[in-house]
Amino acid sequence: MKVAIASDHRGYDMCQQLCEWLDQQEYEVVKLGPASNKPNDYPDPAVAVATAVSQMQCECGILVGGSGIGMSIVANKIRGIRAALVHDAIGADQSRRHNDANVLCLPSDMLGQRIVNQIVRTWLMTEFEGGRHERRLNKIAELEQTRPMPNPSQSTNSSPTASE
Questions:
Q1: Which residues pair with 4 in a beta bridge?
Q2: Residue 98 is among the residues annotated as catalytic for this protein
Q3: Which of 1, 9, 10, 33 lies at a CB distance of 3.0 to 4.6 Å from 66, suitable for a disulfide?
Q4: Contacts of residue 120, Cβ cutoff 8 Å, sequence gap at least 6
Q5: How many CB atoms lie within 10 A of CB 89?
Q6: CATH at 128
Q7: Whole-Å CA distances, 19 to 7, 64, 126, 135
Q8: Ordered per-residue pLDDT tens for the chain, 164 residues
Q9: How far is residue 86's CA from residue 94's CA, in Å, rounded to a whole number?
Q10: Is residue 38 included in any domain, yes or no?
Q11: Is position 139 within any domain?
């Protein structure tokens, strides 16, 4: 399996260790940055990994950030990406089994390497169940294709009236 992986500067050390571990597990690792732990902007590595997965250059992706929150937000902006921020093996299992997540986001500031390896192992080995979950993913894909961007001139602070 070909796995795209990247981090921000806070996740750099964990990402390096994870790349070595993935190599040992005989995964094909495509490291998409950064080259060092110098400060970088998390949208850049998130877009690189999400794009590689979206364009089917890699089967899945892993992003490591300090909290993982920003990485998850950015990756989910790319059409076809279902990025999941995961903190444990149960979340890893559910994100694959029920949501067919194709990008795993990990919080380096909150997890140790042993737990991260367990999460990644679970995530990579768990298959999508399909069935009722397929119907739900189709609804998500439809949203990506059909929903217009909100009109910025409309106020988001107004409450609906009784006639709405």
A1: 30, 61
A2: yes
A3: 10
A4: 18, 21, 22, 62, 92, 104, 106
A5: 16
A6: 3.40.1400.10
A7: 11, 11, 19, 34
A8: 999 999 999 999 999 999 999 999 999 999 999 999 999 999 999 999 999 999 999 999 999 999 999 999 999 999 999 999 999 999 999 999 999 999 999 999 999 999 999 999 999 999 999 999 999 999 988 888 887 666 666 544 444 444 43
A9: 10
A10: yes
A11: no
**Which tokens in the block code for residue 127?**
């298959």
Residue 144 domain-assigned? no
List Cα–Cα distances, 86 to 25, 38, 67, 131, in angstroms. 21, 25, 10, 23
In what order do the strands lie in the sheet containing 103-107?
28-31, 2-7, 60-65, 103-107, 83-85
Q: Which of 9, 87, 98, 133 is catalytic?
A: 98
pTM: 0.88
Residue-number span of the structural domain to which 16 is assigned:
2-133
